[in-house]
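From the methods appendix. Each design record in this collection lists the tokenized structure first, followed by the designed amino acid sequence. Records were kept in a plain field format so they could be parsed without special tools. The example shown here is representative of the layout used throughout.

RECORD:
FOLD TOKENS (427 positions):
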């Protein structure tokens, strides 16, 4: 009996690792943070968790996998993203490979041939891609020339929104023509673009405030401004005399984090019902405000799940914030909700180089190539081989990982994707 593609509820995610793009005329903005190691080290892809719509890339017969398994015929990869129910890979040559659910166009390619969505396939783009992101039902790619292409659809509480005024886009479309973009970030159903002038542009669902440019009333598709205002990428504005420039941006499931260029302040907007933005008021924030909790530190990455955030600083220390249920904070079974950033004591002797969130799960990669996971275990996406919740970081072991050094992790809706190199592979 064929699997219904809507049988599993989507859980948004996003991969937010950025690369600077050089403008041939003038260099206006270049990200100053160190490049993650995997941007220079190609490797293989491993997946685990739910695979009922082909998001594991392990064939139609693999509906789930409780331990990491290598995806065949996909190599020389330098980045991976796990979407809600699809997977995206970026190769060393700048090509994009996708597989998984394509009912809303998230794969960006023709899958009319039966079973083709479950097999890794190439997305046709005019240029070399330097960054990829994935949300619940959309995918985006940043090209070396600063152009951004996206495909798929955004969703809100009423259902499918479409990606543009034309609706769902099954093939890549350019999102911000005429602008040079240096980084992109995807939440579950929104896309953020940072241009060379340090300005933020957003589009998609804004119901939780994650666009940072519409009011609570204006975030409804039935508002006076309508759907087109939400789907068209537009500038996030500030008071007339205050126009900060940003140098980095990250997106959580329902929120956005942006690093201001001069002082390093972290501006936030979106869902804060468990203080996951580092703000005291437990409500959605529809316009950017400075988060004192996040400001004042040198962050390499910030990730957000449904109700929690994790952040990695330049010293390799991981901090967590937000809701405790299912162990997603990694602070132990008896911990309280974290209303301020707390370092994970179980990882205090480790130097971490990469982090990721799913809806209620968290991951970390150490400089020794180890993968740690914690949080909700019911979907198998922790890779422990069991379906039990994990309340403190647990190192993930398997026969496949014994011969691989993990470089990067991306948590999706109900599956997880790894980038790894052979232990014998030279950098």
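DESIGN:
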């Amino acid at each position: 009996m064929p699997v219904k593609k809507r049988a599993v509820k989507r859980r948004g995610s996003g991969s937010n690792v950025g690369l600077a793009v050089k403008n041939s005329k003038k260099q206006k903005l270049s990200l100053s943070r160190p490049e993650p190691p995997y941007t220079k080290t190609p490797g293989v892809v491993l997946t685990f968790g739910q695979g009922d719509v082909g998001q594991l890339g392990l064939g139609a017969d693999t509906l789930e996998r409780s331990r990491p398994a290598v995806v065949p015929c996909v190599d020389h990869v330098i980045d991976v993203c796990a979407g809600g129910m699809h997977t995206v890979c970026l190769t060393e040559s700048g090509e994009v490979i996708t597989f998984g659910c394509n009912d809303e166009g998230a794969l960006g390619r023709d899958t009319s041939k039966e079973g083709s969505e479950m097999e890794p396939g190439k997305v046709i783009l005019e240029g070399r891609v330097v960054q990829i992101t994935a949300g619940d039902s959309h995918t985006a790619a940043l090209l070396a020339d600063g152009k951004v292409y996206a495909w798929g659809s955004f969703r809100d509480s009423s259902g499918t929104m479409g990606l543009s005024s034309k609706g769902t886009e099954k093939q890549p479309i350019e999102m911000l023509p005429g602008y040079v973009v240096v980084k992109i970030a995807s939440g579950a159903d929104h896309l953020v673009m940072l241009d060379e002038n340090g300005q933020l542009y957003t589009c998609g669902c804004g119901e939780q405030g994650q666009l940072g440019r519409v009011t609570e009333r204006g975030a409804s598709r039935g508002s006076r401004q309508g759907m087109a205002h939400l789907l068209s990428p537009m500038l996030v504005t500030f008071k007339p005399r205050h126009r900060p420039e940003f140098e980095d941006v990250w997106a959580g499931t329902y929120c956005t984090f942006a690093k201001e260029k001069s002082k390093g302040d972290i501006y936030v907007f979106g869902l804060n019902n468990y203080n996951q933005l580092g703000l005291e008021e437990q409500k959605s924030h529809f316009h950017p405000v400075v988060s004192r909790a996040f400001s004042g530190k040198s962050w390499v990455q910030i990730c957000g799940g449904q109700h929690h955030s994790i952040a990695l600083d330049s010293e390799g220390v991981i901090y967590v914030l937000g809701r405790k249920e299912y162990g997603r904070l990694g602070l132990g079974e008896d911990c309280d909700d974290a209303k301020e950033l707390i370092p994970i004591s179980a990882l205090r002797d480790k130097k971490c180089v990469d982090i990721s969130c799913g809806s209620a799960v968290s991951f970390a990669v150490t400089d020794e190539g180890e993968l740690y996971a914690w949080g909700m275990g019911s979907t198998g996406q922790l890779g422990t081989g069991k379906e039990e919740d994990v309340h403190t970081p647990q190192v993930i072991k398997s026969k496949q990982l014994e011969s691989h050094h993990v470089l990067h992790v991306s948590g999706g809706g109900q599956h997880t994707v790894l980038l790894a190199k052979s232990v014998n592979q030279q950098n």
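APPENDIX NOTE: The chain has two helices and 30 strands.
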